[in-house]
Amino acid sequence: MAEQVLQRFPPGVADKLRSYVYRLIDPRNGETFYVGKGIGDRVFAHAKADIQGDDLGEKLGRIREIRLAGFEVSHVIHRHGMDNRTASEVEAALIDAYSGLTNETLGSGSDVGAAHALEIVRRYKAEIAEFVHRVLLINVNRSAATTSLYEATRQSWRLNPTRAARAEVILANRHGIILEAFVGDNWFEVEAGSAQRKFTRYGFTGRLAPEPIRRMYVQKQVPPSFRKRGAVGPIKYNYL
């Protein structure tokens, strides 16, 4: 069956697929712009931008641009026949492998993702941090390599700004290690996207935390309770 006329899997096929991992591809340049996992007909629904709960972020904006240009999103079922946990691991590995994705969250198990052997040794030998403040953890795995650590940490995030403003310390972490501690002075709206597809995220202005606080947290491990498999979002709190 040609991809452009296949709108769903025939009866019985989805059951054989079980959990699968797929890539959404821009047919205009062949670029993979999203990696996801699912069951049933999720890949078709996603390619048509028909997933409940999605907001007007980069992914949906890219899909709409493709369709406005007169094309349909291409896709590849990258691996199938898995249980959900295995699919999560494959999804995370592909998110590591493809740069420039529109995924807003890292794959499950991102703390065990691509890293140099020495980085892994440092990670597992580091002392585990003990949180004695109201802490907002921000995972900067994907952004720390392209800008300063402060800029990678401070914007732009999908979060509740009222809750975020209650944090006493903002901790930037990468692969389970706390890289820096900041104090946020104020939170503000960030208009993200393009002229055709705008959406709101949030950022903060701030400064390095005082040295005694930095010594409590920097270069220590994020406690295991904050690194549970399946918790894929970049934002975590130790308070309600």
Report on this structure.
It contains 8 helices and 8 strands; from the N terminus they run αββααβααβααβββαβ. It has helices at about 15, 40-45, 60-70, 85-95, 115-125, 150-155, 160-165, 210-215; strands spanning about 20-25, 30-40, 75-80, 135-140, 170-175, 175-195, 200-210, 235. The longest helix is centred in the middle third of the chain and has 14 residues, at about 85-95. It is globular, with a radius of gyration of 20 Å. It starts with 12 loop residues before the first helix and ends with a strand.
Helix and strand composition category:
alpha+beta
Shape, per Cα inertia axes: globular
Our count of helices gives 8
Strand-residue proportion: 25-35%
Any idea what the radius of gyration is? Answer: 20 Å
Characteristic key phrases:
8 helices, globular, 8 strands, 26% helix, five-stranded mixed sheet
Give a brief outline of the structure.
This protein is α+β, with helices and mostly antiparallel strands.
List the helices and strands and how they pair.
Elements: H1 13-17, E1 19-26, E2 31-38, H2 42-47, H3 58-68, E3 74-82, H4 84-97, H5 117-125, E4 135-139, H6 149-154, H7 161-164, E5 169-174, E6 177-193, E7 198-208, H8 211-217, E8 235-237
Parallel strand pairs: 4-5
Antiparallel strand pairs: 1-2, 1-3, 4-8, 5-6, 6-7
